[in-house]
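Worked example 2:
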Amino acid sequence: MASLERTRVALLSDWLRDAHRARHAHSEAAAHYARLDLWLGGTAVVLAAVIGTSVFATLGQPLPTVARVSAALITFAAAALSGFQTFLKAAAQAEAHRQASHSYEGLVREIEQLEIDPPASEEEADREFDRVRSGFYQAGDHAPQVPARSWARVERRPDAGERR
């Protein structure tokens, strides 16, 4: 019985560390995709504003070939960035990772509650462990794939398996 209890405590500790790491990784991925969306969208808007302003400023004036080619390239770059932003769906990916991070944060709280207030009986412990295990399965099933870069950033942190 005592060895089973130690095994459960060790399992809870492992689950808590894994839930923290997954939460941090999804949070890192959400921040990455939010930055990507902002960079793509912001750059496209600035380029479109520059070209739009330039067109109005030069209405009725003949432009040198270099200026026309530059304007065409800037217009192409703005369109390409807008296309990449639409294709990559970075904002939607950021939101999906945010939701996954929240799911894992919920698991962290449940596991911490079990550590603070352990189940009174063996049957209750079995139910609680099954519930947490099921929560991990659900969180993993609904979570998007975390990019390797985000995992690497989390692994470099000394507090990767802890609450922040």
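The mean pLDDT is 90. The two ends are 34 Å apart (CA to CA).
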